[in-house]
Amino acid sequence: MSNQILKGKNGIIFGALNEASIAWKVAEQCHAEGANIVLTNAPVAAKIGQTDELATKLNAPLIYADVTKMEDMQNLVDGALKAFNGKIDFVLHSVGMSLNVRKKNPYTDSNYDYMHTTLDISSMSFHRLMQTLMKSDAMNDWGSILALSYIAAQRTFPDYGEMADAKALLESYARSFGYHYGKAKKVRVNTISQSPTKTTAGSGVGGFDAFYNYADQMSPLGNASADQCAQYCVSLFSDYTRMVTMQNLFHDGGFSFTGISTDLMQGFSDKAQGK
User: Fold this and answer.
1) Within 13 Å, how many C-alpha atoms sit on residue 64's CB side?
2) pLDDT at residue 267 above 80?
3) What is the mean pLDDT of residues 203-219?
4) Which residue, 227, 214, 210, 190, is CA-closest to 264?
5) Minimal CA–CA distance to 102: which of 207, 201, 211?
6) The sheet that has 139-149: what strands, in order across it?
7) Is 186 exposed, middle or buried (0-12, 13-18, 19+ CB in 10 A)?
8) Residue 10 forms beta bridges with which residues?
9) CB-side exposure of 130: number of CA atoms within 13 Å?
10) Which of 22, 84, 85, 136 has its CA 20 to 30 A from that of 104?
């Protein structure tokens, strides 16, 4: 059900690669709530993704941009301002890639050129985006900028590797840049720490299926789905959350604050009794 809480608002959505992407769900949900959307993705997504199909479905401009290049970010912001014929109200940064994880390099034997690329794409791009938006005076007052994070920024998950470091830096940028953007333009900046979600990127992490099931059993509400994450993003893009900024917001069914669940305790108990 749509309540049109984003009616008349303009937003940029990064990273809608295919229907499994959280960003894809966010774009659909924002459109349903009355927003005007510009989609963006890496140039390589034109060959391996379906972003163009979503753009056609939502009647949304699609502007490809390499998030490691300032000129591409500037072209994206300029293109969005032109498409909207006005300023931007919200942005979703859903960008992440780890070469060391992809190459299956152990965390303790990381390739540092790969690590630099990981941090550049997954974290520094967030700062680069906000710097471009601020210098272009592209955001409306009380605008909202979100980035997708993960609890590995606070806790150790061995197979998540250097992406944990990237997410920690991402969250730091939200706090640090969020302060300055709030003072200057009342723009709020937050990160969402989402449950393990069966996206193309998430499923590429070693042991994902086992951890997905573990988190689902740990969380009193179970894992949050991509659709539910999209609804949460909409609430943070809306005027109902104007005073929320510089926060890392856990959207994980309670996983982040659960020490042990009764389901897991029962499993350990059964194992101890040889069942």
Assistant:
1) 11
2) no
3) 81
4) 214
5) 201
6) 62-64, 36-41, 10-14, 88-93, 139-149, 188-194, 248-251
7) middle
8) 36
9) 28
10) 22
Alpha-carbon span 44 to 23, nearest angstrom? 17
Mean pLDDT, the chain, whole residue set: 93
Question: What is the percent of the chain where pLDDT is above 90?
Answer: 83
The token pair at 268 is: 């350990």
Token pair in block for residue 27? 């774009």
**Rounded Cα distance, 184 and 81, in Å:** 20
Q: Which residues contact 272 (CB under 8 A, 6 or more apart)?
A: none
Return the structure tokens found at 179. Answer: 């302060």
Domains and CATH numbers, the chain: 10-272 (3.40.50.720)
Torsion 201-206-211-213 (CA) sign: positive
Half-sphere exposure of 219 (CA within 13 A, CB side): 21
| Region of 142 on the Ramachandran plot (φ > 0 left; ψ -120 to 50 alpha; else beta) | left
Residue 79: what residue type?
G
Q: Which amino acid is at 82?
A: K
